[in-house]
Amino acid sequence: MCFVFAAVPAAPVNVSVTQLRAHSAMVTWNVPQGDTVIGYSISQQRQDGLMQRSIREVNTSSRWCVLWDLDEDTHYSVQVQSVGLHGDSQPSRSVHFRTLERTDHYPAGILDHHEPAMEGLGMTPHLQTGELLIITTVLLLWAAVIALFCRQYDIIKDNDSNGTKEKGKRPLVRATASYYNASAGSSPLYNGAVRSGRLHRASSSISIIRV
Q: What stretches pass through the bilayer (predicted)?
């Protein structure tokens, strides 16, 4: 009878703690080449034994993790395990570190641009830039909407004014037409004046002929 044991990944190597702050720190590590790793497990413990915490994450290829809610000026130890398809690896060597005091000065250039960005760990300028971009984009969109609304309003207003002018012109045209119609034969005064003028002219010509 043969027993086949599924291989578990080897323990992580090169475990280190960087980005030390008063209440946070970053843990980084490497995985031996050839191991199938789907996650990690971190054991965090205070040196005085008052607190112990475990962090486990799967379906990730991350090789770093941020430890939050640490106590300032406190000694901690941390170990990392790789999570494989058939089980967890042995714990890595224990790494000891001490958090800073809130009054400690952070070393200049402690942030490496090649390391993952961490919210709240010296990344305030980047966050402010992102927020400003979002606010600027929203304001531009609102300005475009307002400009489009004003343009449509002006078009509708112009159409209404043109329609009002056309309606105002139509009675004048009809009145003029009726005036001309009346002048053609419906107005008795005008017709009488015209007829009397014609008659007067006719009588004058007749008078001249008689003379």
A: 132-150
Q: pTM of the prediction? A: 0.49
Tokens of 199: 């008659």
Tokens, residue 68: 């939050």
Claim to verify: residue 95 and residue 141 sit in the same structural domain: no
In angstroms, how far apart are the furthest CA atoms of the chain? 160
DSSP 142-207: HHHHHHHHHHHHHHHHHHHHHHHHHHHHHHHHHHHHHHHHIIIII-HHHHHHHHHHHHHHHHHHHH
**How many separate domains does the chain show?**
2
Handedness of CA 139, 140, 141, 143 (dihedral sign): positive
Residue 86 CB contacts under 8 Å (≥ 6 apart), including other chains? 6, 7, 8
How confident is residue 120, by pLDDT bands cut at 50, 70 and 90?
A: very low
Residue 150: give the domain boundaries: 123-211
- Structure-token match 């008078």, residue found: 207
Q: 194 versus 34: which is more confidently predicted?
A: 34
